[in-house]
Design a protein that fits this description.
2 domains; mainly alpha; about 0% strand
């Protein structure tokens, strides 16, 4: 029941599945009479707490190898057998050879698959495929001559925080009449982060090193060592195990009006749903969820508006 409410709350297509627990968290808080809350967004992006920063460190080490060694690795990866483990190796090597700003989107279906496989000819011809890369490219260059990690943190603050996480939380908060404040995003904290050397944010393979050191005298060790628990949901597993959810996905993506919007080829969507049942539920499930939210957004904000306009015009 919450899924249509998400599409109604966001006035643009928004596929971040963590909007669901955010919705219920704020809904429960409002029912308990709470009108203001603190949120922890920004801590990872200011102090180096995301797993992806470790992956980027691996890519940096890869580029320090002699060119001949990299060429051997590249050739070996391309000739690897089509097995799950080797596919991961191939993906890592391919990502390592992309410009850093392109790696922000390299994990997505739209960059790993050939566009002609999924999108209709008319849709592909109507869009600029390079445009989505222009945004991270501009932010990446604007960060200036700083350490690679700090460049990533800057881009994440502009994209992951400003355009995704804050948008997600603020819309859900508005829907429930709650004010949310972000202590980590205080300008003073941001300026302090900018003055901290990158080697103290990510020390060796320790994420948020200096952040945790700063709170050693205040927090017990089990809190500081606690594994991260994000708001992401196992939508892929739900699509496999929950018949109602799976049928909702099929009806949203394969109904005639969804196909007639002209974005995707029906055969491609059917193949995506089938692949999801046999391969990575996390990876393909997230894309199915994105497409579901796109279709629900259309029905709530485009189809209903068109219907209302027709009613007005026919009066």
């Amino acid at each position: 029941d919450a899924i249509p409410s998400l599409a109604a709350a966001y006035d643009e297509p928004f596929g971040n599945s963590s909007a669901i627990p955010t919705f219920f968290c704020l809904k429960t808080a409002r029912e308990c009479g709470i009108t203001a809350m603190f949120a922890g967004d920004g801590g990872d992006e200011l102090f180096g707490g995301n797993e992806r920063y470790l992956t980027e460190k691996i890519f940096t080490l890869y580029h320090r190898l002699p060119a001949a060694a990299r060429a051997l690795i590249d050739a070996g990866a391309e000739k690897a057998p089509p097995l799950p483990l080797w596919r991961k190796v191939q993906n890592y090597v391919r990502k390592a050879n992309l410009p850093a700003y392109e790696r922000f989107f390299a994990y997505q279906l739209y960059f790993r698959a050939r566009a002609e496989e999924y999108f209709t000819d008319d849709f592909r011809q109507s869009i600029d495929r390079e445009f989505p890369l222009d945004v991270p490219r501009r932010h990446y260059l604007r960060a200036g001559n700083v350490a690679p990690l700090n460049r990533l943190l800057y881009v994440d603050l502009k994209l992951a925080i400003a355009d995704n996480d804050l948008f997600k939380v603020n819309r859900m908060a508005e829907a429930h009449g709650i004010e949310v404040r972000y202590p980590y995003l205080d300008p003073k904290v941001g300026r302090a982060s900018g003055e901290i050397p990158a080697r103290l944010k990510l020390k060796g393979w320790q994420k948020r090193y200096i952040f945790k050191k700063a709170f050693e005298h205040l927090l017990p060790a089990e809190i500081l060592r606690k594994k991260k628990h994000g708001f992401g949901l196992p939508t892929g597993e739900w699509l496999r195990s929950h018949n109602g959810f799976r049928e909702l996905a099929r009806s949203l993506l394969l109904e005639r009006r969804a196909i007639e919007r002209g974005y995707f080829k029906r055969a491609a969507l059917e193949r995506l749903l089938s692949i999801h049942d046999h391969e990575s539920s996390t990876y393909y499930g997230s894309h199915i969820w994105n497409f579901m939210m796109l279709e629900l957004w259309h029905r709530r904000h485009v189809d209903e508006r068109c219907s209302m306009n027709n009613v007005v015009e026919n009066r």
